[in-house]
Amino acid sequence: MADRIDKETVNHVAELAKLSLTEDQLPYFTGQLDSIMDLVDTLSEVDTDGVEPTYSVTDQINVMREDVAQNWGERDALLNNAPEVADGLIRVPTIIDESED
Amino acid sequence: MNYFDKDITSIHQALVNGDITAEALTKQTLDNIKASDSDINAFINLDEDGAIKTAQAIDKNGIDPDNVLSGIPVAIKDNILTNGFTTTAASKMLENFKPIFDATVMKKLNAKQTITVGKTNMDEFAMGGSTENSAFKKTHNPWNLSKVPGGSSGGSAASVAAGQIIFALGSDTGGSIRQPAAYNGIVGLKPTYGRVSRWGLIAFGSSLDQIGPLTRNVLDNALVLNAIAGHDEHDLTSSDKEVPDYTATIKDGVKGLKIALPKEYLAEGIDQSVKDAILKAAETYKQLGATVEEVSLPHTKYGVAAYYILASSEASSNLQRFDGIRYGYRSPEAKNLEEVYVKSRSEGFGDEVKRRIMLGTFSLSAGAFDAYFQKAAKVRTLMLNDFKNVFKDYDLILGPTAPTTAFGIGEDISDPVTMYLNDAMTIPVNLAGLPAMSIPAGFSDGLPIGMQLIGRPFDEATIYKAGYAFEQNTDFHKETPKVGGDK
After folding, report:
1. Is the torsion defined by CA of B35, B38, B39, B45 positive or negative?
2. Continuous H helices in B165-302
3. A89 touches chain B (CB under 8 A)
4. Which of B91, B157, B155 is closest to B124 using CA atoms?
5. Closest CA in chain A for residue B240
6. Among B55, B351, B101, residue whose Cα is nearest residue B202
7. Between residues 59 and 88 of chain A, which touch chain B (CB distance below 8 Å)?
């Protein structure tokens, strides 16, 4: 169906998924994903010409509701889950790392 | 508290009669868990203080004689949000995460005055079939401690099987309630997609996930489904179909019921002992007045492949939210925004989660979308049609839950493909959104064999009726494992 999974593909996919793989992990995941693709490629045997895809099996179609904001009043509890907080706000590292310029 | 010789109704009666208080029951349950959990490792976190306080409040107000769940302790899979109590999904990513609201199923159980004693171990983000993918501990099968409890709801299933608790909740995306129920010799139901709200269930594959009960018998299972089923405005895929009383027809028997036995479910790769147990179950049903006939579900063998593309694609999207910013793990090494994302995710997720995120990301990527994601979604349609064709003529489908009994800890984990093929008979049910239940149907080498009953959409009542009839005419559910209980 498609080319075999190689290290380059795995690195590209990891980058898209915001994951980084170490030198050791790259061949390990490449081998495993390649054997998973062997399994997945069996789907090419199935004739799906003219078959509509199914994305969900819910019996609820286009449920509408009013777009109304709800105040949960849980600001402190929410902030308690943040990794780093300063002055009632979530703190993050420098967004633009100027040292790289 | 020895839960082995009790059920929800008998415990309820003891509470109503005042033979035991909810507080004493809760303390005994916690003692019982602590006594056996060094062997089993079913729990990630116990909420001793919270459970005892809840029990005291229930005792103060009095047990409601009309509410069978009033004062009954429960264990909850750790991917179901419990307000203010740590919920980890067995991931380092959420090791210290305290939800700020209850999942809808928790709201419903709390309204029924159940007592949550703790959160159970699972495969990280519910990805796996052995509970070995937990970031925190490995759960052991109470029937044989060197075996896995199955997964991903392995902690919930092992806890119920070991008599630590009378019921637990799990979640099922590709078999994660039914397969551990089978491996542990208990009853586990995956409801119809949309029957139980997914609000507050940490999302894995949103078109497949369902929460359901794990119990020691069929009637208890129906009592729990009665409490958790129903429409929820927070989950717009939850159905507004009326929820029947699932116990109303449970004792009606199977006379005249038409049961289908798919030949693909007894094909190569299924252990002989499992096949024998299912064929024997078919004979039992015939003796009870049902008809059992062989049918075909021709696309069965493609289910695992279609599932791993679709579930992983949904997971790769759902797990994007773990970015190290608002909650969850943040790498201490992160120096800029990109590193917050990449290092936090790379250090916070385990290998199986990374595998599935990458498989999903690949399947959705430019160039692969039509060949993989769209192809799998079309195969899903064909599998759905297979089931629709069988249900034109039959009321139920009977088969094994898993191809083997529980495998050894460490046996399959290095080979994801072998691990995935264990789910070949549970996965098609999720792809089609159908209800299905695993119940005990035999033993092989001292390990339980599970039988799966699959029903029409929203026809859990027929599954329960057939499960109850089987249970009343067999003794498999009366066996108890060596570890656990009050002995």
Report:
1. positive
2. 178-184, 218-228, 272-287
3. no
4. B91
5. A60
6. B101
7. 59-60, 63, 65, 72, 74, 77-78, 80-84
Residue with the two structure tokens 């609820």 = A60
pLDDT tens digits, one per residue of B259-284: 999 999 998 889 999 999 999 999 99
Q: Which two tokens stand for residue B36?
A: 């056996």
Residues 35-64 of chain A with CB under 8 A from chain B are 35-36, 38-46, 48, 51-60, 63
pLDDT tens sequence across B333-345: 999 999 999 999 9
Do B286 and B293 contact (CB within 8 A), yes or no? no
Neighbours of B294 (CB within 10 A): 10
C-alpha–C-alpha distance, residues B32 and B14, integer Å = 18
| Cβ atoms of B91 and B350 closer than 8 Å | yes
Residue A3 has pLDDT above 70, yes or no: no
Assign residue B367 a region (left: φ > 0; alpha: ψ between -120 and 50; beta: otherwise): left
Nearest chain B CA: its distance from A72 CA (Å)? 9
Q: B375 and A19 in contact by Cβ < 8 A?
A: no
State the smallest CA–CA distance between residue A96 and chain B in angstroms: 7
Is residue B240 predicted with pLDDT exceeding 90? yes
Q: Residue B77, by phi and psi: left (phi above 0), alpha (psi -120 to 50) or beta?
A: beta
DSSP per residue over A51-84, as a string? PPP-----S--S------------HHHHHHTSS-
Q: Which pLDDT score, from 0 to 100, does residue A100 have?
A: 53
Position B29: which residue type?
T
Q: Model's pTM, two decimal places?
A: 0.96
Q: Which residue of B has its CA nearest to A29?
A: B355
Query: What are the residue numbers of the active site of B?
Result: 77, 152, 176
Chain A residues within 8 A of B346 when measuring between CB atoms: 19-21
pLDDT at B268: 84
B91: tokens are 């991931």
**ipTM for this prediction:** 0.92
